[in-house]
Specification:
The chain is α+β, with helices and mostly antiparallel strands. It contains 5 helices and 7 strands; from the N terminus they run ββαββαβαββαα.
């Protein structure tokens, strides 16, 4: 079931400004080491759970785009996700107000500012931001979706347990 069709990330970690569109039912990320794949997934984790990793809350000073932290301009991190809900997607009972607010095709943006630990929410590019009641409805909608980021942890094998087979030249 396809839910997300576009992701826009602005000033998150190593990502200055990135738009990923044309997402399908299944999307694979591939690229060189340090090209931003994990940060894209961390951005989505921050969007859904306000955490960059499991049990690691979003921290503006650590998660702001690293190359511009010392500039004087206003600093913000924003993550936008465009949703296209299929007819098979059901809002659970009691969330009629969330369905009425959001509809079936919408874009949600979460924005963090340096001086505010709580993100602001925007719907379909709206200004001003959503009020507290509307934010609660958005959070209830987001709780319907399961997103899981499992970081890849690579550990070196000790000598004698295969490390010499991985690097047959013996160069370390």
């Amino acid at each position: 079931m396809k839910l997300i069709t576009k992701v826009v990330i602005d000033h998150f970690r190593s990502i200055r400004d990135q738009q990923i569109g044309e997402l399908g039912h299944f999307t694979a990320l591939a690229g060189l080491n340090n090209s931003g794949k994990s940060n894209l997934l961390r951005a989505l984790h921050a969007f859904f759970y306000n955490q960059t990793d499991v049990s690691v809350p979003f921290d503006f000073s650590n998660d702001y785009f690293c190359h511009e932290i010392k500039t004087k301009k206003a600093k913000r991190v924003s993550i936008s996700v465009k949703f296209e809900l299929p007819s098979t997607f059901k809002f659970r009972k009691g969330l009629e107000a969330a369905e009425q607010l959001l509809g079936r095709s919408f874009t949600l943006k979460k924005q963090w500012n340096r001086n505010s630990p709580v993100p602001s929410y925007f719907l379909n590019g709206s200004s001003p931001q959503l009020d507290h009641v509307q934010q609660g409805l958005v959070e209830q909608f987001l709780s319907l979706i399961t997103f899981r980021y499992i970081p890849n942890r690579v550990r070196r094998l000790p000598i004698g347990q295969g490390a010499d087979k991985i690097n047959p030249s013996g160069i370390r």
